[in-house]
Amino acid sequence: MHTLKLIVIGLIAAGLLFLMMAYFPGTKTEEGPTFIVTESPTDFVETGTLTFATTTAQSLLFLDYTNGTGTTTIPLYIDELSICSSATGAIPCVAMSISFDVAFGGKKAVVEGIQREDGILLRKLYILSENETARLPELGSIFISWPQAVSLIEGCSVEMIMQTHTLDVYLTLENDVKVRTIQPVIDEVFGIYNGSISKCGNIPVATE
Questions:
Q1: Is the pTM of this model over 0.90?
Q2: Distance between CA atoms of 34 and 56, rounded to whole angstroms?
Q3: 162 and 153 in contact (C-beta within 8 Å)?
Q4: What is the mean pLDDT of residues 18-22?
Q5: Cα 144 from Cα 134, distance rounded (Å)
Q6: Tens-digit pLDDT profile for residues 147-200
Q7: Are 104 and 127 spatial neighbours (Cβ–Cβ below 8 Å)?
Q8: In a 10 Å sphere around its CB, with 0-12 CB exposed, 13-18 middle and 19+ buried, how is residue 26 labelled?
Q9: CATH number, span 144-208
C-alpha cells in the first residue's frame, strides 16, 4: 500500500511538471529551455486591397493583389495567431468587436501568412495608412502569440530583442532559435524587458 501511494504521488508530480512546462514556455529544466517550435514559417507576403464576399452567415475576407500573371484574388483565413494591425496598434483578429468589412473594406494592406490549398492562413494583416510605403518582410517568420512572448522574456529564455515601427518584435532564443510576435503598441516589449532585468540580467535590444 505504501509503495502504491508513492507511485500515485510520483504520477501526480509528473503531471504537474508537464502542465507547468506547457503553460509556461520560459520555464527551464536541467536539459535546457522547454520552448519548442511547432508553427510553420510564413511563405506568403503580398500587398493588395482587402475585399469581401458576404454570405448569410459571415463576411469572407479576400486579398486582391498583382503578381506576374495579373490580378489575383485569394481568400484569407484566421485563427488564434492571426493579428490585425496598423501603425497605431494591434489586436488578435478573432478579438475584433466589429466586422472585417466595416473595419478594412477597400483598404490597402500588407498580408503575411502560410499558404494552404484553400487560401492563406493569416499571420499578420497590416493596414497601410494613407501615403504609407509598404515594407514587405522576408518570408520564413515563425509567429508566436504576444502572451507567449511575454512569458519567454519573463522566463529569461530570450537572448536578444528587436522591434520595428510596424509593431513586429523579433526574439532570439537560446540555441539561436528566432521567433516573431506582434506587440499591442510600440515599445510595449521594452516595458516587459525592463521588468525582467533584475531577474534575468541585461540582453541586447534594438529598434529598427
A1: no
A2: 45
A3: no
A4: 39
A5: 23
A6: 999 999 999 999 999 999 999 999 999 888 999 999 999 999 999 999 999 999
A7: yes
A8: buried
A9: 3.30.720.210
Least confident of 2-11, 28-37, 149-158: 2-11
All CATH 3.30.720.210 domain ranges in the chain, comma separated: 144-208
- Classified as helix, coil or strand, 179 is strand
* HEC profile of 1-67: CHHHHHHHHHHHHHHHHHHHHHHCCCCEECCEECCCCCCCCCCEEEEEEEEEEECCCCEEEEEEEEE
Q: Are 122 and 109 in contact (CB under 8 A)?
A: no
Alpha carbon distance 95, 97 (integer Å): 6
Q: What is the DSSP letter of 81?
A: T
CATH number, domain 44-127 = 2.40.50
Cβ atoms of 208 and 162 closer than 8 Å: yes
Residue carrying the nine cell digits 540555441: 175
Residues of the chain with CATH 2.40.50: 44-127
Cα separations in angstroms, 20 against 16, 23, 24: 6, 5, 6
